[in-house]
Amino acid sequence: MDPVGKKLLDIAKDNLGYTEKSDGYTKFGDWWAKKMDSDHNPYFKTAPWCDMFLAWAAEKAGVADQAGQFAATVQHAKWFKKHDAWGTKPVPGALVFYDWSGSRDIDRIDHVGLVEKVDGKTLHTIEANADGYKLMRKKRDMDTVVGFGYPGKVKVDKYVPKHAAPAPKVEALTGPASNAKIAETTHGSPGTSLPDAPSQEILLSGALAIVLCGTVALAVGRAAASMAPTHSPIRVRKRGKHHRTPVQLPADLTPADLDAADAGTTVMPALSLAAAHQAEDREFWGRIAHLEEDEELAFWNSLHAEAALSGTPDEYASTPSFR
Questions:
Q1: Taking the model in full, what pTM does it have?
Q2: What is the 3-state secondary structure (H, E, C) of 100-115?
Q3: Is the model's pLDDT at 18 over the cut of 80?
């Protein structure tokens, strides 16, 4: 019994007796038109449905990749041949392809069914569109059989991600040393030395060292990150009237009073450089006037008097002398 074909037989047995409508409509052709045909051609709803039923059954059984899904029997048979799953030996669970003219030509196949049992040269089958309208059991001889498709022999290519490569062998890591040499080195027999290539223990130690260094580096990085300031040290002062803090005026003062005070303020004229020097000198000599009895100041006072008599600049002539 073909294991994949058995699943198809189970689906077929559950649908025995299904009959197409008077206009040729079948639920299998309708399913094909909606799901399998990219153009959703309504032709398939009333088309011959022997192979479309097998496609529907394969979908239900979850074996579409191994049983194939076709609406044309010739293409289906060639698909089995392409996958090296084609032959002439009847096997329960196999798909059987017929040519009613007995030509044995794969390009002239007319019909397909499922082999349920083999009795000598007689085939017991379950076929859709049998007798042109029904899903039913049939007895057939081998005279009209072109060949058989064995879904259990179809090899399905399983997707393997590129990054999921198999683990390297020990020889790839330790070099071409023999198993005996590796065992000898591992047990540390007297008089032997390590081979040129690293042993598994050395490779394991190196891997552990890398992991340890990575852990330490990660811990240092986290510590540095924890000490970093969470806020920017630069403070930006906002400007604009809408950022000023309002000030509450006293009860006896109004904004109009402030405006009036601003209007009556007199701006003092700028002082000349000479006047500024005179004011500075007056302040200085005023601060030391109480020291005029000091003998040392007499010397400076005399110098000042001499400078005044010899025609010194105006700013010094106006400076008071000590008496």
A1: 0.51
A2: CCCCCCHHHCCEEEEE
A3: yes
pLDDT in tens, 211-268: 666 666 666 666 665 565 555 444 444 444 444 455 666 777 777 777 777 776 555 5
CA distance 139 to 246: 105
| Structural tokens at position 264 | 């009556």
Query: What distance in Å separates the CA atoms of residue 297 and residue 291, rounded to the nearest whole number?
Result: 8
Residue 306, burial from CB neighbour count under 10 angstroms (0-12, 13-18, 19+): exposed
Q: How far is the C-alpha of 217 from the C-alpha of 208, rounded, in Å?
A: 14
CA gap 128, 53 in Å, rounded: 7
Calpha distance 4→67 (Å, rounded): 7
| Angstrom distance (rounded) from CA 239 to CA 146 | 94
Tokens for 276, please give them: 């500024």
Which residue in the block uniquely carries the two structure tokens 């009847």? 90
List CB contacts of 177: < 8 A, sequence separation 6 or more: 171, 185, 195, 197
Tell me the pLDDT tens digit for each residue of 77-125.
999 999 999 999 999 999 999 999 999 999 999 999 999 999 999 999 9
- 3-state SS of the chain? CCHHHHHHHHHHHHCCCCECCCCCCCHHHHHHHHHHCCCCCHHHHHCCCHHHHHHHHHHHHCCHHHHCCCCCHHHHHHHHHHCCCEECCCCCCCEEEECCCCCCCHHHCCEEEEEEEEECCEEEEEEEEECCCEEEEEEEEHHHEEEEECHHHCCCCCCCCCCCCCCCCHHHHHCCCCHHHHHHHHHCCCCCCCCCCCCHHHHHHHHHHHHHHHHHHHHHHHHHHHHCCCCCCCCCCCCCHHHCCCCCCCCCCCHHHHHHHHHCCCCCCCCCHHHHHHHHHHHHHHHCHHHCCCHHHHHHHHHHHHHHHCCCCHHHHCCCCCC
